[in-house]
Design a protein that fits this description.
Elements: E1 3-6, E2 24-28, E3 40-43, E4 49-52, E5 63-67, E6 73-79, E7 91-101, E8 106-113, E9 121-128, E10 132-140, E11 151-159, E12 163-174, E13 181-186, E14 191-192, E15 196-197, E16 200-205, E17 214-220, E18 227-231, E19 240-244, E20 251-254, E21 262-271, E22 283-290, E23 299-305, H1 312-324, E24 330-336, H2 349-358, E25 365-368, E26 371-372, H3 379-387, E27 392-401, E28 404-413, E29 417-431, E30 443-451, E31 457-461, E32 466-474, E33 486-493, E34 500-505, E35 517-525, E36 528-534, E37 543-548, E38 551-557, E39 561-565, E40 570-578, E41 588-593, E42 608-611, E43 618-623, E44 630-635, E45 640-645, E46 650-654, E47 661-667, E48 670-676
Parallel strand pairs: 1-20, 14-22, 23-24
Antiparallel strand pairs: 2-12, 3-6, 4-5, 5-12, 6-11, 7-10, 7-12, 8-9, 8-11, 13-16, 15-20, 16-19, 17-18, 17-21, 21-22, 23-25, 25-26, 27-28, 28-32, 29-30, 29-31, 29-33, 33-34, 35-36, 36-39, 37-38, 37-40, 40-41, 42-43, 43-46, 44-45, 44-47, 47-48
Length: 677
Amino acid sequence: MKRILLFVFTLFITTAMFAQTRASFINESFDGSEFPEGWTIAGSGSNSWSIEASTNAGGSPNELMLYYNPSFNGISRVVMNPVDLTGVDDVVVSFRHYLDNYSYSSIIGIATSSDGGTTWNTGWQQEYSMTGGAFINETITTPDMGKDNVLFCLFFEGDSYNITRWCFDDFDIFSQEELDLKVVSIDIPEIIPADETEIYFTVQNVGKTSINLFDVEVNVSGWDEPVVATIDQALVPFEKRQISFSNFSNVTLLANPQDSYYHISVEIVNVDGVADDDATNNKVEKNVFAAWGDTQRTTMIEHFTSSTCGPCVAVNYTMNQLTNANPGKYTYTKYQMSWPSPGDPYYTEEGNTRRKFYGCDAVPTVFFNGSYVSATIVQEMLDIENSAPAYVNIRGAFNVEGNTINVIADIMSYVKLENVSAYISVNEKVTTGNVGNNGETEFHHVMMKMLENADGNTISIEPGKYQRLEFSYDMSSTNVEEMSDLEVAIWVQNPNNKEVFNSKFAYENTEHRHPVRNLVETTSAKGTRTFSWDAPEQGTPTGYKVYVDGTLAAGNTTETSVSYDTGKQVVLVEVIALYEGGKTSVGVVEKFNKEDVNTTENEMTSNVSIYPNPAKDVVKISAIEGQASVVRIYNVMGMMVDEVEVNSDNMEINISDYTPGIYFFNVEGEVVKVIKN
């Protein structure tokens, strides 16, 4: 029998967590906006280091960044707080980094000092000349090991003009155990479709000795007991590996919302038959949510550029080629920057706000659904991103009256969103008045105004509901050249990790497409259920599209109700209003529980009899008409606790092991409530 998981839907976006109490001397992830207390800059480049809100190195915001300007040629050191290494012969240095290289090569390394920074002893260094990132794990030994007042530093050596930026995150300097396997992360996305899925996770051997096999325990809230499996895979020191094991593949996620999120834990039980030397990094926990549904993703492109930037010319050309070949497959906003001097004439402080949001400090730079991709993207990247499901649906429209633009946007979520940011950018499709000195004569998707402003609009939405944003703005104070040439980009973004949930261009120069109202279940007779709704408050739809648990129940009905045969106790129904020209509203989704629907006496006539009811040990099932083939038994949480094949229309089911309470017996679409004493 498959384990059926009932997931709850709060967008409590979380990262995998683990405690760390081994001998960890430095552990810094730059969560604050300022340099860690006690950290200093020594040597050259004192004004070139900063803490930025970016995630280029691969960690969570924020990160340490070395920028090429003000440029210097020499050694620059980020010096950390002193630590006591008494009795320590060597340490492991672990960190993430990402280099955006401009030309030639540069060196980074780790050094130590036990005389207050007068003498530095290099423990590790590496020369880099290519753009890219890496995760460093190195064991270092220097003459400073074993002393009681040791400084560590990260150093850069070279000409800073040869790089654009170098980003660093998640510094960990610790003593290494002999036998130590660490669970790094649970790798299932935080939001997943309501379907069968697989639990997979990453482990790393952070000990000194190789590992041949290990036992892992996986538990999910709602399971009767955890699953323990032996993983027969060898790992040498510092090796990472993602584990996907058949014992964890029989997990089905149902989109039946309850009152709390679902919890998954992965824990190393033993390594090579014994407990490893550090139990504090053996367990990772994560919250995962099955969505009420999903929708088509439209990639959001945010592009920082300038008409005074020479390299921007080629990137603008490439991006224009890409977007011209992919109509309807992207949303685009371009921010003109004030550098290189004298800067783009259409630079605005709102563009600068977005620059600071991302920690962007160079042009050309492109962010792709909130992720930094340097200068440009290619067709394969766009196709891959758009193929992923999105859990936020967006529809908007705008019209223009003189110099005033009127915008309405509806944002509907298939999961609970809390304190996320909705952005609305009014762009001009083509501009020619901001010509600079790089030779370009026209520019595309140029941001003119953000509504209400560039900080975005903080919203929270319950699953299946939508929130409306409405703005009117006089564009005469902006750089707009032609009011007839506007477009409106709308996107929803996590302000913490920068992830863009979805985006959409608004319908142009037209009225808003309003969604349906008052979606309800009106009858529930046997296996057939009827759902009805009211027409939108404004506008005249050409029809409606209806989904029941993700299955299309009506493709283009002109009625305001639909009947659908389902044997499930709890269903999710979505209705989308259709309009002329292929335009649609956002969907409206409701959860319906059969127990909550009032029906007449005739409607409750059942083909199935279950007795005694209440029962203690055994129930008998009689199918009045025909032969039943399967009985599925659910608890009040919607979790299937048993599935029994039936070979005749009269049989017994043993329920003595069930926990006392209410159960729902689904017999080929007929649902009967049974009380277990």
